[in-house]
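For homework, think about our next protein:
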Amino acid sequence: MKVEIYSDIACPWCYIGKRRFEQALDRFPGRADVEVVYRPYQLVPDAPAEATAHRAWLAERYGPQSVAMDARVTELGRAEGITYDFDAALHANTFLGHRLLHLAESEYGAAVQADLKERLLKAHFTDGADIGDRAQLTAVAVAAGLDADRVASYLAGEEGADEVRAQLAEARALGITAVPTFVFEGRWAVQGGQEADTFLQVLQQVAEETGTAPVAEPGAEACADGACAV
């Protein structure tokens, strides 16, 4: 089973959704046969290259309710083991980060890409890193196991940019307007950071629909949250 997760590095619900989906996957009997790939989506594609304070940007966009929005996400994230520090977070363009995730998947595989995705989310939401800065992105990538020289040369040029733009266009063609969106086998889509139990149910249903549901051994027991929108 292939699961493509459309998400943005700057989407707090994508972080929660990632954790909840992984909890479901850990409980899914057929998890060894599930391939998870992260696809790009940009909530603010015209965000400037130079980072600004997250709090200021969110207040300008949503007004007074922005404080309550951050507080709600912080509370829900805590339950998933996520520490949000919105006072330190920076609003930055995520295109370079998506290019980096494309490099990780194409040259290192889905597992390394998932690890890099986790590190980028933490860097952005917890550590106050500038995810639009090439040097900081390189440091995060190296921590995930990518080669420093390869990453530096890759980010210095335009390699992978056309591929990421094509994937962004594909997301629009699919009608995706909010993230995270989880696409199963290219046929079924689930939007939002759903509870782990919901994701588990979807995994089981898709496995049954596609005939890939694991067969239990004899005697063994069978085994709306939010989203960020444009």
Q: What stands out?
A: The domain at 2-229 is CATH 3.40.30.10 (Glutaredoxin).
